[in-house]
Design a protein that fits this description.
The structure holds two protein chains of two kinds. Chain A is about 60% helix and about 0% strand. By secondary structure, chain A is mostly helical. Chain A starts with a helix and ends in a 20-residue tail after the last helix. Chain B has a seven-stranded mixed β-sheet with strand order 7-6-16-15-14-8-9, with helices on both faces. A six-stranded mixed beta barrel of chain B has the order 20-25-22-24-23-28. In chain B, strands 12-11-10-13 form a four-stranded parallel β-sheet. By secondary structure, chain B is α/β, with parallel strands linked by helices. The interface between A and B is large, with 57 and 48 residues. β1 (about 340) of chain A pairs antiparallel with β2 of chain B, so a sheet runs across the interface.
Chain lengths: ~425, ~1050
């Protein structure tokens, strides 16, 4: 009988071991997948998928075109075929000849006024929305056209825009979700197995005790061992245990208070009510409006800038005009009083942060710091915005040196002296005066 | 062993004497000193010199100023301590609960060309009281925050004057008028317009428009058109510091001086680098042929004969003190010697120097320039004759292009004052004019105004004159205005507004147009006036002109009154000059401080706190006197004793005495502009005394020197001088040599310290305990040419504005706590003969040589400050910049104690948001003033160290722009504020790793010749290099 019991115990043990290995494996897999997604998100991926599409054109021209397009055109035009404010520009060079495009881009209104049939048609088609004139040189316009022609903008748009981030985020969440469900089942099974195990062991112990007391002649010494009683008060009175408990209590308390103190001034998760219930989910998520369309200076300035009411009116002069929230914008315009948004991301005065350094030069996605903004109905502070958080990123993130002549020599020097990645920190990115002056 | 001694040298200079100097190239050692107290090494000076921070000073001032900054530190009682403790605990717990809600308020309708966070630049022009600069205005979010020179201009492409730099604050002055005033009461423009128009319609008598010099062609035209409808109209022009005699002797204009073409310059009481006429364009010309290199070993020789030690005199190669009463005889003697009618130096003037000047002038015909700041018609007639005789016309004086920056006519103004008193003036307008203060006949102006029917002032604040008029119709600040300028014939420039008017002010020209019943705006008037200049499409031309800020195609618009009243003949001048006799008593000269001018910008705290180039005094005027006079038995004063000055007619003023080396014996000097007692100028209120009454009116001319009686009073008042603050002890920090030596061997003009080692003398940098930094990306550095620095202080003001440096006020300057990151050290020097007994031979303070040295953080590669900071708040960057992290600093001040250059500053107080500094430091303490702060630089808190950062915000921005455009930064793109504003290009900033940069080329060229590091022997390896000053001694 004993052997039989032992055998079952063996089986249970094996089952336990097996399930443990399986679950750990699954968990590890999930973790590595997550890590991969994370690095992919952080890496400046903007240039990756693009190079194949526009292989023919000079990359320098394309780069220039891309920069000009992003800063000047992307607010109203997509490089694909979808209409934002103005038409999608895919195939625009086939629709119109270059000379006409040059004139149109430099000063569309004069072209319309001159009565050019083509121009008037375009003007009327898009609700007589005048396109501002641009003081570009011919070469600059041609570089933009080359960029559009290359199709890079289309290939890139998902990566640059919120859509790419949506995809990336979903991949990460799906993986976590899948692994998470699996883990729950394993956990429940494990707990049941453990309870069964404990009960079984207790049964065995009592059976053995009874057996020994009844069937064997035990001397006093053995009997004492067999009939040993578990005395709780002894543990309770033990100095060592008391010290340990006190110690653990103190450590936990200290840890908690330190955590709390270090958290003073950190507003991670700060989600104030805004004067207008603006939803980033509707704009950036569902309608996929490029961040740059509203935050116009995000590639040019230290400030990303909160859009002025006239930017809202670009669309909302026609869209959802009856909504009470949008009425608030009308009222602001009528009263000539700007909208007072509540500032969510508050960096102290002593820290200098420049958006264009990170977006334009570093190629960092908005979501890297601002989180899944395209899913936020009400925006909250996603990152802690602490110095440790900044520094950490500077230590880990490789510099976006590709195609930037500023870094050419530095990359060479770095490769000659070090095998590690050329991170922001290895170019002096953790020095005081980079952010504090 | 050797290394040890190098380190200890940082502690005591005496150890240096064990070092083997490579050369002793001077028989007699030059002794440098910053003030009399240092020269004499008084016990008090010695005691303070050893302390970086004057611990002897009370932290809680009770005597100097009434208000206190909080709980007393020394008298804290136990209960107070507990209260403070309780309060701070409560404050901390409160603060930790919830961060305050901050608002982010975007534009309602964003202007098209304005991006938040990106600076916009507008070309414009600054002109005030003879000081002219073509400028670029930097605006952020529509607020002007900085002024830089306009490189498109050929007159002032390099830098600006200190006044120009500081003028950006004027628009944010809370004491400007917010509405027009009618008899001192706030009014609406409609009321003002209707009342003035009706008053003008019934005007009885002469209509006078009084202004200081106007160089705007359109404004002048408009004024004349405005006056055209009155039967009796006169536009009266006067200058507070008049050059009437100069104008009269030169056909009504300031001659078109070109100092860059002169080999020999003789200045006679003319502070042409300071405050005389158009100092910025002249400084640029002057320095052009005083820059030397081994390829070009020629430079001009500058003689200066003057009474007070001016900034110009400090730059002269040969300076001779003369008394004002000797000026006429001196000029007459000079004229006679030049024309060969006898060559005797007048009595009492250094004959050697006089003869040398005459010899040089005669030997360099056609390449000479003689200028005089005198307002004596005889002197100016003779100076013009001398220049003509020596063939200056056509070379060093361009007759086709005179300066228009001063046009004041003394006689005209005096006549108007008499007419006002006679009651024949029916209406008077004051534009940029304040004769009730800045004219010697101010009292007569006040009495005359009572008899004038219609009195209008366009003053921006209630100044002395505006307080006496019926209507004050405040003019816009120049940053809010449209205007044009012609400082020199053929050089036009435009002023464009950088922001809309902040207050309910209106540009003077628009007011005139409104009162003439015209519907056009001045902007349209201006455009129309420029229409004839256009070649091709006018709009294109206009846009281009506004964009460039200047139009220098030779076109001229300004009409100047060139009628000369009674020109003096040379003969008459000669006899008048020769017959003038020297006075034996004390003579006073009245002068303009180069940073204060005649006193119209007196409410600007930046200018008040910028030390005078020579006396290094701030916040007020004083009586500068030579040491011989101060120590004379009749007077016996020490610095700060109040002295009473009395004129023969009984006019008197009292001011503290300042002992000024180089002041001619038997003379005193008093600056204009002070002694204001108006609520509209709180910054200047109560500072100094008004010296305008000391100017005498003789023969319809203003004379700026006068015999006086002086006597000591019992009172005293300390002068806030910075000269011996932050002294560098007795170490050799400046280097100079003669042109003769430089011509002989450029490698022999600079002393290089060598350290004795077993292997012979070695450069200090080769013996080091520290590892060197490796620079890969950039290595920022600066070269300062001591030969080019004229000591004007534009860099100091520019640095203050760029870096949000607080103004601390007179009391704190007296406590030696000024915050300037950059200062200009002014050293007097005298030759210390080997015997060391110069006291027997001559007084070194009689006429010392002067050398200026801009001093700022040297960004040492082996920085002594970095190693002593206990919290690593100051450290080295990978680009060679010595960084300072303010929020890591805990204020131990070890770094400052260990800095051999004394360039670190400690924030003793919170200078912002502080009642105590609300007046002097209003740019940090009022909502309006704060608009001028640089949003890219943090305002430092109390208790932290700060210092020059090499304008790291500009470095970072420049790099970012390059990165955004995917290229390397271009040389000259990244430049510090001091280098950008220097009118003589004395400061070069750049990347020393870029072999093509200007700084690299200069360093390569000057290595071993003029380039030296200050205190090289202590092996701090600075990134700032100085170039030895070369003097062209006679």
């Amino acid at each position: 009988m004993i052997s039989c019991i032992l055998k079952t115990k063996h089986n249970i043990f094996f089952a336990f071991l097996l399930s443990f290995i399986v679950s750990f494996g699954a968990f590890a897999q999930g973790a590595s997948e997550q890590a991969e997604v994370a690095t992919r998100g952080v890496e400046p991926g903007a240039t990756e998928g693009a190079s194949e599409a526009g292989a023919a054109a000079d990359p320098a021209v394309l780069d220039a075109g891309e920069a000009l397009f992003k800063n000047n055109c992307a607010a109203c035009h997509s490089a694909g075929s979808d209409v934002v404010v103005g038409p999608g520009l895919q195939g625009v060079t086939e629709r119109h000849d270059e000379a006409w495009l040059l004139r149109w881009i430099k000063n569309s209104q004069s072209l319309v006024q001159s009565g050019d049939a083509e121009a008037v048609a375009v003007y009327n088609e898009y609700n007589k929305q005048a396109m501002p004139s641009f003081a570009f040189s011919d070469d600059e316009v041609k570089s933009i056209l080359a960029f559009i022609e290359s199709g890079q903008g289309v290939a890139q748009a998902p990566a640059a825009g919120p859509e790419g981030a949506v995809a990336g985020e979903n991949v990460g969440q799906d993986a976590v979700g899948a692994v998470g469900g699996y883990l729950d089942i394993i956990l429940v099974v494990l707990i049941i197995v453990l309870i069964v195990l404990v009960v079984t062991l207790l049964l065995i112990s009592s059976v053995l005790k009874n057996y020994l007391n009844k069937n064997r002649q035990l001397d006093a010494y053995d009997a004492e061992i067999v009939n040993q009683r578990f005395d709780l008060s002894k543990i309770y009175k033990s100095k060592a245990v008391r010290t340990l408990v006190v110690l653990i209590f103190v450590v936990v308390l200290l840890d908690l208070s330190l955590d709390k103190v270090m958290g003073v001034g950190i507003q991670q998760g700060y989600q104030p009510r805004q004067p207008i219930a603006f939803s980033h989910k509707i704009h950036a998520g569902d309608n996929q409006i490029n961040c740059n369309y509203c935050h116009t200076t995000v590639y040019k300035s230290r400030s990303a800038s909160i859009p002025s009411a006239n930017i809202c009116m670009n669309c909302h002069s026609q869209i959802k005009t009856e909504s009470p929230e949008i009425q608030k914008i009308y009222r602001a315009v009528e009263r000539n009083r700007p909208i007072e948004w509540v500032r969510i991301h508050n960096l102290p005065d002593l820290a200098y942060f420049n958006h264009s350094q990170h977006t334009q030069v570093g190629g960092i996605e908005c979501q890297t710091c601002h989180g899944p903004i395209q899913e936020m109905d009400v925006v909250y502070q996603y990152s802690p915005l602490t110095m440790g958080w900044c520094i950490n990123c500077h230590r880990e993130t490789p510099l976006n040196t590709e195609g930037n002549a500023y870094y050419d020599n530095l990359v060479k020097l770095h490769e000659a002296s070090s095998k590690g990645a050329f991170t922001v920190a290895s170019n002096g990115g953790t020095e005081c005066s980079k952010c504090h002056y | 062993m050797v290394v040890q001694s190098v380190l200890s040298a940082t502690i005591n200079y005496k150890l240096l004497k064990v070092f083997e100097f490579s050369r002793y190239n001077m028989q007699d050692r030059i002794k440098y000193w910053k003030g009399i107290e240092e020269l004499e090494n008084t016990p008090e000076f010695a005691k303070h010199a050893h302390n970086e921070f004057p611990e002897f000073l009370p932290l809680n001032e009770s005597k100097s100023e009434g208000s206190s900054s909080g709980a007393s530190v020394t008298n804290t009682k136990r209960r107070d301590f507990l209260k403070l403790l309780g309060f701070s605990v409560a404050a901390v717990s409160l603060a930790s609960c919830e961060a305050p809600v901050r608002k982010a308020i975007p534009y309602l309708n964003k202007p098209v060309d304005l991006e938040p966070g990106v600076a916009n630049w507008y070309a414009s022009t600054y002109y005030s009281q003879g000081d002219y600069s073509s400028i670029l205005i930097k605006t952020r979010e529509g607020r002007p925050i900085k002024i830089e020179p306009n490189p498109t201009s050929t007159l002032t492409p390099l830098g600006t004057s200190p006044k120009t730099q500081a003028s950006v604050l004027g628009v944010y002055d809370n004491n400007r008028l917010r509405t027009p005033l009618i008899k001192g009461k706030e009014a609406e423009w409609e009321q003002v317009d209707s009342q003035i128009t009706s008053a003008l319609n019934s005007v009885n008598g002469k209509v006078a428009f009084v202004s200081t010099t106007i160089i705007s062609p359109s404004t002048k035209k408009l004024i004349n058109e405005f006056g055209g409808r009155f039967g009796n109209f006169e536009h009266v022009v006067y200058d507070p510091y008049s050059v009437s005699a100069l104008l009269n002797a030169n056909g009504g204009v300031v001659p078109g001086y070109d100092f860059s073409k002169a080999n020999i310059i003789v200045g006679i009481n003319a502070d042409f680098l300071g405050a005389w006429i158009a100092s910025t364009p002249i400084a640029k010309q002057y320095i052009q042929n005083r820059k030397v290199s081994s390829d070009n070993r020629e430079m001009s020789r500058h003689y200066q004969f003057e009474t007070r030690l001016s900034m110009t005199g400090a730059n002269a190669d040969v300076r001779v003190p003369i008394r004002p009463s000797q000026e006429a005889t001196f000029v007459a003697a000079l004229y006679n010697s030049i024309t060969g009618q006898g060559s005797n130096a007048p009595e009492g003037i250094d004959k050697k120097a006089f003869d040398a000047a005459v010899r040089d002038l005669r030997a360099n015909r056609g390449r000479v320039l003689v200028v005089s700041g005198s307002n004596n018609p005889a002197v100016q007639t003779l100076v013009t004759a001398i220049n003509q005789t020596l063939g200056a016309e056509g070379t060093t004086i361009d007759p086709a292009s005179p300066y228009y920056v001063k046009q004041g006519n003394d006689a005209q103004m005096i006549r108007l004052i008499e007419e006002m008193n006679a009651g024949t003036v029916g209406a008077v307008f004051f534009y940029n004019a304040n004769p009730a203060y800045d004219h010697p006949l101010a009292a007569r102006v006040a009495s005359g105004l009572k008899k004038v029917g219609l009195k209008v002032s366009f003053a921006e604040r209630v100044d002395e004159t505006a307080a006496l008029v019926d209507f004050v119709t405040p003019d816009n600040n120049y940053l809010e205005s449209w205007n044009d300028h012609e400082p020199k014939r053929g050089y036009l420039s435009l002023t464009q507004p950088a922001l809309s008017p902040i207050f309910m002010t209106r540009q003077m020209q628009d007011s005139l147009l409104a009162w003439s019943g015209s519907n056009t705006t001045y902007y349209d008037y201006l455009r129309n006036n420029w229409r004839p200049l256009a070649t091709g499409d006018f709009n294109t031309f206009w846009e281009q002109s506004v964009h460039d800020g200047v139009l220098e195609n030779g076109a001229s618009l300004l009409a100047v009154n060139t009628a000369v009243i009674n020109p003096m003949s040379v003969g008459a001048a000669l006899s008048a000059a020769s017959s003038s006799s020297a006075t034996s008593g004390v003579e006073a000269v009245i002068y303009e401080k180069s940073q204060i001018g005649p006193g119209n910008d007196i409410n600007n705290p930046w200018l008040q706190e910028t030390p005078d180039p020579i006396s290094k005094a701030t916040w007020g005027n004083y009586i500068a006197m030579p040491r011989s006079m101060a120590e004379s038995d009749e007077l016996k004063v020490v610095q700060g004793d109040i002295v009473r000055v009395t004129l023969a007619n009984g006019t008197a003023l009292e001011l503290p005495a300042l002992i000024q080396p180089g002041q001619a014996s038997g003379t005193i000097a008093i600056a204009l502009g002070y002694g204001r007692d108006l609520e509209s100028m709180p910054v200047a209120k109560g500072l100094g005394a008004n010296a305008y009454p000391l100017i005498t009116v003789s023969d319809n001319a203003l004379i700026y020197s006068v015999p006086v009686k002086i006597e000591k009073t019992d009172a005293n008042s300390p002068i806030a001088q910075t000269q011996t603050h932050h002294t560098v002890m007795d170490r050799i920090v400046v280097q100079e040599n003669t042109l003769a030596k430089y011509k002989e061997d450029p490698k022999d003009v600079t002393e290089y310290v060598r350290i004795a080692t077993h292997d012979g003398p070695a450069k200090p940098a080769t013996i080091s305990m520290w590892d060197d930094y490796e620079y890969k990306d950039h290595h920022w550095g600066m070269v300062i040419d001591l030969n080019s620095c004229i000591g004007c202080g534009a860099c100091t003001v520019s640095c203050n504005i760029e870096n949000n440096i607080p103004v601390v006020g007179k009391a704190e300057v007296l406590n030696r706590r000024e915050m300037h990151w950059m200062r200009i050290d002014r050293y007097y020097s005298s030759v210390e003969h080997k015997e060391g007994e110069y006291s027997k031979m001559e007084d070194p303070a009689d006429n010392p040589a002067v050398i200026f040295q801009p001093m700022l953080c040297q960004h040492c590669n082996h920085a002594p400050c970095e190693t002593v900071c206990p919290v690593a708040a100051t450290m080295h960057s990978s680009e060679g910049i010595n960084q300072m992290a303010y929020n890591r600093c805990v204020g131990t001040r070890y770094c400052a104690n260990n800095c051999p250059y004394k360039v670190r500053r400690f924030n003793w107080f919170a200078y912002f948001d502080n009642e105590k500094f609300a007046t002097q430091n209003y740019m940090m303490n009022s909502d309006l003033g704060q608009m001028v702060l640089n949003p890219d630089v943090v305002v430092r808190a109390r208790g932290v160290m700060e210092k020059c950062s090499f304008c790291v915000q500009r470095v970072q921005l420049g790099k970012l722009e390059a990165k955004r455009e995917r290229r390397r930064p271009k040389d000259g793109e990244i430049i510090t504020a001091c280098a950008q504003s220097c009118p003589t290009e004395a400061i070069i900033f750049g990347d020393m790793l870029d072999p093509e940069s200007r700084i690299s080329k200069v360093l390569v060229k000057e290595q071993g010749e003029r380039a030296f590091h200050v205190l090289e022997e202590i092996n701090t390896q600075p990134n700032v290099t100085y170039l030895t000053k070369i003097r062209n001694l006679a």
